[in-house]
Design goal:
- The chain has two helices and eleven strands; from the N terminus they run αβββββββββββα.
- It is of the alpha+beta class and 191 residues long.
- The strands form three sheets. It has a six-stranded mixed sheet with strand order 2-11-10-5-6-7, with no helix packed on it. Strands 3-9-8 form a three-stranded antiparallel sheet, with no helix packed on it.
Length: 191
């Protein structure tokens, strides 16, 4: 009991930092994409107390790569696939530590890990975003939808035209038959 009384005042409460990211992001090949990462901390936030690490885990087995580091100022990576491609888009005062990747390529497919530390808040889960880079489709989804609707309308109009033409000729043929029968009746009564 005495030991607890001596140790208890020396133990500090360590609270966790909460990190928020979308679970998945999709981007078109060759475009820019923002990887959003925000956090909340029970301790005051300042540029001096914050450190941010962004790492990349590829889909294929391989080591994690550093993408970006921030501590008071941004430190983009100087080598590898993310050199000159990752830029700071966050605002520490708003608890936003997002980055933007420029001209993404299929080799950027994988998991991005956002790790934030706000001293003394150093414990907590990391944020993870799965990025999927997709190729541009040659025909947009709206174009496909417009073609389907336009094609359907065209088929309906064509069938309607056939129906009207057939009906017109049937009616004309029936009118001709009635006229011939009425004239035959007049001809036979004259005799």
């Amino acid at each position: 009991m005495i030991v607890l009384c001596i140790l208890l005042p020396r133990l500090r409460h360590v609270s966790g930092i909460d990190i928020y990211t979308p679970s998945e992001v999709e981007a078109v090949n060759g475009t820019n994409v923002k990887l959003k990462c925000t956090f909340s901390s029970k301790h005051p936030v300042s540029a001096k107390s914050i450190s941010v690490s962004w790492n990349f885990r590829p889909l294929n087995p391989g080591p994690e790569e550093s993408v970006f580091y921030y501590q008071e100022v941004p430190y983009p990576t100087q080598q590898g696939r993310f050199k000159d491609r990752a830029v700071w888009s966050g605002d520490v005062s708003r608890q936003d530590v997002s980055i933007t990747l420029h001209e993404v390529q299929p080799i950027f497919n994988g998991t991005y890990i956002c790790q934030v530390r706000n001293l003394p808040d150093v414990h907590g889960n990391n944020g993870e975003i799965i990025l999927r880079v997709v190729n541009k489709a040659s025909v947009s989804e709206i174009g496909i939808l417009a073609a389907a609707v336009g094609g359907t309308c065209g088929v309906i109009l064509f069938l309607l035209l056939i129906f009207v033409v057939v009906r017109f000729y049937k009616k004309r043929h029936m009118d001709d038959d009635i006229e011939m029968h009425s004239q035959e009746g007049k001809d036979s009564s004259v005799l």
